[in-house]
Amino acid sequence: MSEPQGSEGSTRRLPVMEKAEKDAGPSQSASAAAYDPLPVLDGENGGDGRFWSARRIPAGITALLILVAAGAFLYDIAAVRADRTALAWRRELARQLAERPLDDIWVLVGAGVAAALGIWLVVLAVTPGLRDVLPMRRPHADVRAGLHRDAAAMVLRDRALEVSGVQSARVRMGRTRAGVRAVSHFRDLDDVRADLDDVLADAVRGLGLARPPALSVHVRRPGRKG
After folding, report:
1. DSSP code of residue 209
2. For the segment 144-180, what is each residue's pLDDT rounded down to a tens digit?
3. What SS3 class is residue 31?
4. What single DSSP character describes residue 134?
5. DSSP designation for 224
6. Half-sphere exposure of 149 (CA within 13 A, CB side)
7. d(Cα 215, Cα 173) in Å, to the nearest integer?
């Protein structure tokens, strides 16, 4: 008669939950919460990055400057073609460009300003901008949505205030990390932190972001008055 065996002839080790160590002292408790984001479909995110800004203000300023300069030169050229003398500013500009050497201080300053403006425009052209808008998951290929960082921070703050023992909370929402600092006026700090970890991890999953930020939670006691 043989001894009873398991279904696979071996035993599986069951997961064990351990209580977090109290490493922040009696007045403050901190943690970096680990959580599993919601599952997504294959190709759901589509490799989408941030939303691209329309850059209306820089584009408008550049277009206005080009329009003014082109209009002034066009008017002066038309005046010369009509047998009128060139405007004084264009004659002075031509004389200065002809007489000043390339190592003149004003020539170097003008070249530096033009180069800086050119680099600025190139950077605006190749970067997406809209850092405050977090891309959300795309369950449908023809629909794309984003969530403002301030709105996401407000959601996390409201959820944190629902935890028993939390008196106030501040949330700093970044593109890759969400930092939560809470003040607890009663209950053990580690218990409050554990509840915050669970509640905020669920709130981050509920935001539906394409790249859920890492969650950092800090809990402390209120400072003494006076």
Report:
1. B
2. 888 999 999 999 999 999 999 999 999 999 888 999 9
3. strand
4. E
5. P
6. 17
7. 10
